[in-house]
Design goal:
The chain has 187 residues and is of the alpha+beta class. It is 16% helix and 43% strand.
Length: 187
């Protein structure tokens, strides 16, 4: 049940980051004052969108652990590939949440080819930090949430995957770097 709470919390954080500050009658700034576009090479408190992308991009291998009662009873190896998103999507700095947001393209695939999911997400990290970074997206069959920790080239990835009504299966899973140590994350 904890994974559902973490997944739900990650989803709420992502929604809040995408929306920005709500502001309004409380006297706080509105979202137009919180979120601004930033160039890929523009430092925000010392870290650029390119540096954040470089620290997390590449292929990350993890073990997917399906929950009990799932129609897929075994653990599976998955590969999560993170690349830069299409050019028309902007990098953003949210001064209210103090987050750097970088659009990414994410592919998730199991080693047996049975699980394949794709989505566009916002890679989010606190101003001035490369890690931890988070992302979440809702694909065609699954919703995926993940956290990346470590240093460039030595990244641990963990998160959750939950089937959607059109998935054809009813299940959920958590994943983490294969042996609990950092993966290589091809840059």
């Amino acid at each position: 049940m904890a994974w559902r709470q973490n997944s739900f919390g990650a989803a709420l954080l992502s929604i809040a980051l995408l929306v920005g500050c709500s502001g309004g009658q409380t006297g706080q700034p509105t979202s137009g004052h919180c979120v601004r576009a930033v160039r890929i090479d523009e430092p925000v408190e010392g870290i650029s969108a390119q540096a954040l992308l470089d620290s997390c991009s590449g292929e990350h291998t993890a073990t997917l652990h399906w929950s009990s009662g799932s129609p897929i009873p075994m653990d599976q190896e998955i590969t999560i590939t993170i690349t830069i998103a299409p050019a028309q999507l902007e990098n953003k700095a949210d001064s209210c949440a103090r987050m750097l947001l970088v659009p990414i393209d994410v592919n998730v695939a199991s080693s047996d080819g049975q699980l394949v999911e794709h989505g566009i997400a916002q890679l989010a990290a606190t101003f001035g930090a490369l890690q931890p970074a988070t992302f979440s997206f809702v694909g065609e069959r699954y919703s995926v949430s993940a956290t990346l920790r470590g240093a460039p080239g030595n990244v641990n990835i963990s998160g959750s995957l939950e089937s959607l009504p059109d998935a054809g299966v009813d299940g959920s899973a958590t994943f983490s770097s294969a042996d609990g140590s950092a993966d290589t994350g091809d840059q």
